[in-house]
Specification:
By secondary structure, this protein is mainly alpha-helical. The longest helix is centred in the last third of the chain and has 31 residues.
């Protein structure tokens, strides 16, 4: 059992990151902490994809390389997802700055209270 957990430690870390990120997005009322939770969740997804793409004894996919080959597709997808994640974070933080300038708080409940009173 211990050997199985030790060989799958990256999966445990990935799912732990997914859990922490989900908890931060749902459990916090602060908008900046929600964005941080979203980034932690994304990191868990990135780690999961990279871990599942690992091939023991794999080589680069060249014509002269022996079997088995490692697919470069998951790595390319993760690079693209990192760029999209950074862009999403920048837009979210820009919106948070505008929300703070408008309402003077980053607490989600306070913002909802102000918007329902108007």
């Amino acid at each position: 059992m211990i050997d199985l957990l030790a060989s799958r430690i990256y999966y445990l870390v990935a799912f732990s990151l997914l859990g922490v990120g989900t908890y931060m997005m749902i459990g916090n009322q602060n908008l900046v902490k929600k964005v941080i939770g979203m980034n932690i969740f994304q990191t868990g997804i990135f780690l999961f994809f990279i871990v599942t793409a690992f091939v023991e004894g794999g080589s680069p996919p060249l014509l002269t390389a022996p079997e088995p080959h490692v697919s470069p597709l998951p790595h390319v997808l993760i690079l693209t997802a990192i760029v999209v994640g950074v862009s999403l974070t920048a837009v979210a933080l820009g919106l948070i700055v505008r929300i703070y300038n408008e309402y003077g708080t980053l607490n989600e409940e306070a913002i909802q209270k102000v918007t329902t009173d108007e």
